[in-house]
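ARCHIVE CARD
CATEGORY: sequence design from structure
SOURCE FIELD: tokenized fold
FIELD CONTENT:
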């Protein structure tokens, strides 16, 4: 297991933020080799999968990895021999009040299971510290600190109400950090009808909402219709890709800053931005490869891909390397500047 302190992670993420595009590519390649070499040494399945790699391998030399591969070979894929699929699933089914770590050292979540077969994901402390710093330094840092004082500001999470869901875990952690003011933080199930959500939000009157893009689009529609009547100071869009069109629509309706975090259970914080429709890839820690339906690189950069290959350079206990996801993206080479919200 790889480990790292808060301060070390803070420094590494800051280093990437200050680096040039060329320097980030160098960091990316160095970290890829460290991760792959570690995986070959500690994961029986990946050792076999990578046995024919050339000495100075490139990213494109690594085979594509899919969810079904991981589920079929789970116990040999992870790099800790004490981890098993059965143990992870048992941990994920624990009571929501149980804040213990898996095997005393890991966190674990699982994918939403949209294809009917969710993938459990274990995260080591190295991964967690790095991705925490990505959130703190690159997503949330421009927001005035007062917004995070939930003795004064009400916050609503519209998420999957499951201990195995990342956003619900964030809700529980937020409540735990604000003893005595738990009633200012609420969670609403995305399985609720639009009418139920509107009723709960009108009663609660949040100033901050954390939700997935489809829920935010629906709430904007309800606000336009006059059914929803809330005044927001901040919106956090999480998980799925918030399109530029929907970004501007939500922004026009609620007239407040939007933090946009494109993330997933497998790959973590992939790309983010604050009060800007264009996402910036955290390329010093995440590699994204747009691919076609045959898992081959998209040749035309003006086209949206059929899927992506994700590599998370920070997770050593359950390596995500060229992992296929069916998200459709287009990577732009232009540089876009985000707003600084601190003055708003």
């Amino acid at each position: 297991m790889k480990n790292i302190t808060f301060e070390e992670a803070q420094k590494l993420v800051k280093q990437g933020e200050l680096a040039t595009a060329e320097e980030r590519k160098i960091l990316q390649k160095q970290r890829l080799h460290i991760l792959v070499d570690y995986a070959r040494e500690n994961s029986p399945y990946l050792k076999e999968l990578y046995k024919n790699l050339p000495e100075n391998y490139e990213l494109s030399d690594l085979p594509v990895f899919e969810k079904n591969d991981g589920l079929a070979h789970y116990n040999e894929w992870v790099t800790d021999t004490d981890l098993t699929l059965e143990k992870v699933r048992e941990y994920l089914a624990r009571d929501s009040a149980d804040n213990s770590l898996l095997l005393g050292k890991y966190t674990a979540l699982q994918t939403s299971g949209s294809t009917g077969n969710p993938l459990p994901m274990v995260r080591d402390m190295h991964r967690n510290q790095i991705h925490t710093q990505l959130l703190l330094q690159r997503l949330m840092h421009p927001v005035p600190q007062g917004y995070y004082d939930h003795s004064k500001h009400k916050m609503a999470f519209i998420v999957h109400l499951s201990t195995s869901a990342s956003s619900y875990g964030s809700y529980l952690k937020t409540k735990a950090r604000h003893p005595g003011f738990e009633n200012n933080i609420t969670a609403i199930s995305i399985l609720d009808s639009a009418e139920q959500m509107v009723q709960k939000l009108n009663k609660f009157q949040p100033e901050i909402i954390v939700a997935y893009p489809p829920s935010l689009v629906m709430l904007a529609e309800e606000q336009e219709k006059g059914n929803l009547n809330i005044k927001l100071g901040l919106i956090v869009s999480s998980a799925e890709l918030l399109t530029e069109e929907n970004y501007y629509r939500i922004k026009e309706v609620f007239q407040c800053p939007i933090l946009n975090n494109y993330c997933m259970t497998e790959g973590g914080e992939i790309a983010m931005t604050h009060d800007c429709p264009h996402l910036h890839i955290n390329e010093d820690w995440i590699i994204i490869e747009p691919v076609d339906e045959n898992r081959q690189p998209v040749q035309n950069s003006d086209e949206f891909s059929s899927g992506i290959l994700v590599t998370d350079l920070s997770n050593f206990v359950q390596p995500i390397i060229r992992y296929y996801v069916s998200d459709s993206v287009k990577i732009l080479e232009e540089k876009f500047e985000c707003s600084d919200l601190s003055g708003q």
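CARD ANNOTATION: The chain has a mean pLDDT of 90. The two ends are 42 Å apart (CA to CA).
SHELF: design records, drawer C
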